[in-house]
Amino acid sequence: MRTIDLGLIPYRDAWRVQEELHAQVLYGAEEALLLLEHRPVITFGRRVADSQRNLLAPAEALGRLGVEVVESDRGGDITYHGPGQLVAYPIVRLIDHRLSVGAYVRRLEDVVIATMAEYGIEGFKDDSAIGVWVRRADGVAAKICALGVRIKRGVTLHGIALNLTTDLAHFGLINPCGLGRPVTSIGEMLGARAPMMGELKEVFARHALTALAAGGLE
């Protein structure tokens, strides 16, 4: 599997790269793991009407902040992407990994949990909501990683967004994932002990490549 670092890139540009790689992987090319950060953007899932109800800021405010709005074709509800957030898009053939869609989603959650464990952060799943959660110092459960995928002709698109040093104030522009629950980041959890983005990408990629190998974690 190729690991490709796209750096800081607008959402639509990364989406275009995903579609190009998807076409290649569909016809037998080497699978790929894209690692990147997005410029500030709010994205809607396929259920656009539901996502729009969870957009809290008017267009003028978004314009002043330089936050783009994009209708995506991924699953899930509304979410925010911005600098300081590790975004990972695996482009893989599920049949090659003997994974159902549900097992693939759980596998991605496991990768995030394993990545954060290296930094002493205990992540967990919530049966009522896709993604990864942590307990803040005040004991409140907060979302630290959003997840939304699309499977097209058996090949995956989109993926995860793990908050490292993301500007958490920007999540106030939306009702994240339509859940009305708080969001946190590795930086907020660890302070000065938080890793740099380059290191986090390396750790995540190591766990992802192991987990997505045929016969990986499950």
What does this structure look like?
The protein is of the alpha+beta class. The protein is built from six helices and ten strands; from the N terminus they run βαββααβββαββββαα. The chain has a seven-stranded mixed β-sheet with strand order 1-2-6-10-9-8-7. A three-stranded mixed β-sheet has the order 4-3-5. A hairpin with a 2-residue loop joins β9 and β10. α4 packs across α6. The mean pLDDT is 91.
Spell out the blueprint of helices and strands.
Layout: E1 2-9, H1 11-26, E2 32-38, E3 41-44, H2 48-53, H3 59-65, E4 68-71, E5 79-81, E6 85-91, H4 101-117, E7 124-126, E8 129-135, E9 141-152, E10 155-163, H5 186-190, H6 197-211
Parallel strand pairs: 1-2, 3-4
Antiparallel strand pairs: 2-6, 3-5, 6-10, 7-8, 8-9, 9-10
Please tell me the CATH architecture by its name. Answer: 2-Layer Sandwich
Mean pLDDT: 91
Query: How many domains, as an integer?
Result: 1
Oligomeric state of shown chains: single chain
Number of strands: 10
Using the coordinates above, name the CATH class: Alpha Beta
Q: Could you describe the largest sheet, including whether it forms a barrel?
A: 7 strands, mixed
Structural class: alpha+beta
> Biggest sheet, strands in spatial order?
1-2-6-10-9-8-7
- Residue stretches low in confidence (pLDDT < 50, at least 5 long) are none
Radius of gyration: 16 Å
Measured as a percent range, the helix fraction is 25-40%
Q: Helical element count?
A: 6
CATH homologous superfamily designation: Bira Bifunctional Protein, Domain 2
Shape: globular
Looking at the structure, the CATH topology is: BirA Bifunctional Protein, domain 2
Element string (H = helix, E = strand):
EHEEHHEEEHEEEEHH
The end-to-end distance, rounded to whole angstroms, is 19 Å
